[in-house]
Amino acid sequence: MATGGAAKHFNDALSQMQNSAGATETADQTMTDTFQHKAETMQTSAAQNFGITLYGRWNPLCSRCHSVGQLPHPADHRPV
After folding, report:
1. CA quadruple 66, 67, 73, 78: dihedral positive or negative?
2. pLDDT tens, 47-60?
């Protein structure tokens, strides 16, 4: 059973954690609210989207080439 002193210590600890969480959120907002961060985020998104688009366009072509035997599958290369 918690005593009065232990309950106060527990409440103080909870209050400190709440303040810490708020400070972390504020710091994160401050760091991400910059032109550099926004530009880096846009560059990352653009690169990921380009990769997805490139894969989507080349995958069917590579699959067709493989199916007619022009590009052997790496698993087909077994040691002699």
Report:
1. negative
2. 888 988 888 888 87
